[in-house]
Automatic annotation (TrEMBL):
Keywords from the named record: Hydrolase, Protease, Thiol protease
Domain (NlpC/P60): residue spans on this chain: 47-198
Organism: Allobranchiibius huperziae
A Pfam match: NLPC_P60
Protein name per the record: Cell wall-associated NlpC family hydrolase
SUPFAM superfamilies per record: Cysteine proteinases
Organism ancestry: Bacteria, Bacillati, Actinomycetota, Actinomycetes, Micrococcales
InterPro entries the UniProt entry points to: NLP_P60_dom (IPR000064), Papain-like_cys_pep_sf (IPR038765), PG_Endopeptidase_C40 (IPR051794)
Location of region: Disordered: 182-204
Length: 290
């Protein structure tokens, strides 16, 4: 038997009951192998909003966004600091970790795709939250973007028996088979249209670039105030524009790139001096202008 996974309020696991899960009398079967190497993408045709939802979730998986218990449950959707999870023998202090838990990931992905925020609710309140915000109940996950809900856990269906999820502090955000979770889902929900135009956080295409040093993020490219940090490593950017001249480690640049930082802030700016591939007072190749 599988041990219970965290967490009580948002992402509690359930024991494996067999090789497949029954949803509305329809079996959802597949290999129980981890499929950690499976690409995070939509496998099959789906609606435009559902496709964007999958893309948004997979962007967080591919970026390596951390799991944070209660992350994504602030007033605004998106990665945020979490809370303490203390159910012996497990203990995790996520108060200073910016990330997402399972329902926080689904909330953020749908908001990015549709412009609709169904709120910082736990999986136990998903039925009313989703059906009152454009989702419809379906018998089984058959299209990419379908949201699968278990007792204490939720994930986004990718197709081919795979799902994107925020599994836990140890496993992080990943791609697994639906069957790997086990148990009986309490419902499956298909996303609707949301608002006509998604809000700025979706930002268009995301271009991944290497950030060679942890960078401060500011709220405006012209004399902006520092609001957070962007960790070094591979990070995505939406676009770039000119602003105030900034110097760091012997480099100087007046180009700024829009991104979502690792402090939970959306649509903030990082100076090009922190991004690999640039030159003094020059644009970062491959990133469109805003």
């Amino acid at each position: 038997m599988r041990t219970t996974k965290k967490a009580l309020a948002h992402c509690t696991g359930v024991a494996v009951l067999g090789g497949g899960a029954l949803i509305g009398g329809v079996g959802v079967f597949g290999s129980t192998a981890a499929h950690a190497d499976a690409g995070c993408q939509a496998y099959g045709a789906t609606s435009a909003v559902a496709a964007k939802e999958v893309q948004a979730a997979c962007a967080e998986v591919d970026k390596g966004t951390p799991y944070s218990w209660s992350g994504g449950h602030k007033a605004a959707p998106g990665p945020s600091t979490g809370q303490i999870y203390d159910v012996p023998p497990e203990y995790y202090d996520d108060r200073n970790k910016v990330g997402l838990d399972c329902s926080g990931l689904v909330r953020w992905a749908y908001y990015e795709a549709s412009g609709t925020d169904f709120g910082p609710v736990s999986t136990y309140d998903f039925d009313s939250a989703l059906t009152s915000h454009g989702f419809s109940r379906v018998d089984a996950p058959t299209q990419p973007g379908d949201v699968i809900v278990w007792d204490g856990h939720t994930a986004i269906y990718l197709g081919n028996g795979l799902m994107a999820q925020a599994e836990g502090d140890d496993a992080g955000l990943n791609v697994r088979t639906v069957a790997s979770h086990g148990g009986t889902p309490t419902g499956v929900y298909r996303p609707g249209g949301g608002t006509t135009t998604p809000p700025p956080p979706s930002g268009g295409s995301k271009v991944f670039k290497d950030v060679w040093a942890t960078a401060p993020s500011v709220n405006n490219p012209t004399n902006g105030a520092v609001v957070g940090t962007l960790n070094k490593g591979s990070n995505y950017f939406y676009c770039q524009t000119q602003g105030s001249e900034t110097s760091y480690a012997g480099y100087h640049n007046d180009w700024w790139l829009k991104t979502d930082d690792d402090s939970g802030n959306a649509n903030v700016w990082v100076n090009a001096t922190y991004v690999s591939g640039g030159v003094d007072d020059g644009q970062i190749p491959g990133v469109p202008t805003c």
